[in-house]
Design brief:
- The structure is a single chain.
- With about 290 residues, this protein is an alpha/beta fold.
- Strand 6, helix 7 and strand 7 form a beta-alpha-beta unit.
- The protein has one domain: Luciferase-like domain (TIM Barrel, Alpha-Beta Barrel).
- About 45% of the residues lie in helices and about 15% in strands.
- Helix 2 packs parallel to helix 3, helix 7 runs parallel beside helix 10 and helix 8 packs antiparallel against helix 9.
Length: about 290
């Protein structure tokens, strides 16, 4: 299983070092991917711009939106152009994880109907395929001759059906290894019914904090980000890996569950967190 690391683009104190220095260190350490989390009505860094900055200072590491809230990009042709441009700038390293999101305020501030987001997303997936295939004149042409690598966020039936029809697999965020193990049979069957070749890819997302202030970091970042969930936010804070043993247990658990990649997202924007995590993962780059 590959092990990636998130950029701290949603951590409140993020700055240039949390993107540029972080990206360089992550590539040097041997992580497989840099991930971003999408949100609109929040003081975070926008994910495509963050990944473009990371692309400029790296050469090998994948660049993964995990996830981008597609229906908020109301001009789907522009979204296609942006993603194709980023795929070119990174020389084919973009992995586009997309979903609808679950925070109504992101849609309200955009003047969009939260209840229509699923239907909008389905239309976008069809339209993006046409743009990426060069049928509409929106370019540049894909670097590798095919669209950017595409993942659908979620683990429910609609996400599985979208993945089987349009994408290369699923990305499952904030769930334990059991969720991957439970989703894989349905995804594999949907893949077969859709007549797809090969096997679908599955990526998982978890949080971590390491060092002497790990508990405080997790509470500050995740409590702020997920505060709207009330008591459930405490479960998310409690589920973050805050020591080396828990990090290793997550890696072992997701490997056993059948995940192809685990992206560990930080709760601090200090680039030293890259080195702290890498020190606990001797398998990086192997």
């Amino acid at each position: 299983m590959d092990i990636g690391i998130g950029l701290p683009n949603t951590v409140p104190e993020v700055n240039r070092a949390g993107i540029i220095d972080w990206a360089r260190r992550a590539e040097d350490a041997g992580f497989s991917s840099l991930g971003t989390i999408g949100r609109l009505r929040y003081g975070n860094y926008e994910e495509l711009i963050s990944l473009a900055a990371a692309a400029a200072v790296t050469e090998r590491i994948r660049l993964t939106t995990d996830i981008l809230l597609a229906p908020l990009h109301v001009n789907t042709a522009m979204l296609a152009k942006q993603t194709l441009t980023l795929d070119h700038l990174s020389e084919g390293r973009l992995v586009l994880g997309m979903a609808v999101g679950g925070r109504e305020d992101d849609y309200t501030v955009s003047g969009l109907d939260f209840r229509e987001r699923g239907r909008v997303f389905d239309r976008q997936l069809e339209e993006l395929g046409s743009h990426w295939a060069g049928e509409t004149g929106v370019g540049p042409a894909p670097v590798s001759g095919r669209r950017p690598h595409l993942l659908i966020g979620g683990q429910g039936d609609r996400a599985i059906q979208r993945a089987a029809r349009y994408a290369d697999g699923l990305t499952i965020g904030g769930a334990p290894p059991d969720a991957v193990a439970q989703a894989l049979p349905a995804l594999t069957e949907a893949w077969r019914v859709a007549g797809r070749e090969g096997r679908p890819r599955v990526v998982a997302l978890s949080y971590y904090a390491l060092g002497p202030n790990a508990q405080e970091q997790a509470r500050h970042d995740l409590g702020h980000y997920y505060g709207f969930l009330g008591d459930y936010a405490e479960m998310i804070i409690g589920g973050a890996a805050k020591d080396a043993d828990t990090v290793r247990a997550l890696v072992e658990g997701f490997t056993a569950a059948g995940a192809d990649e685990l992206i560990l997202f930080p709760t601090s924007a200090d680039p030293d967190q890259v080195d702290l995590l890498a020190a606990e993962l001797p398998q990086l780059g192997n």
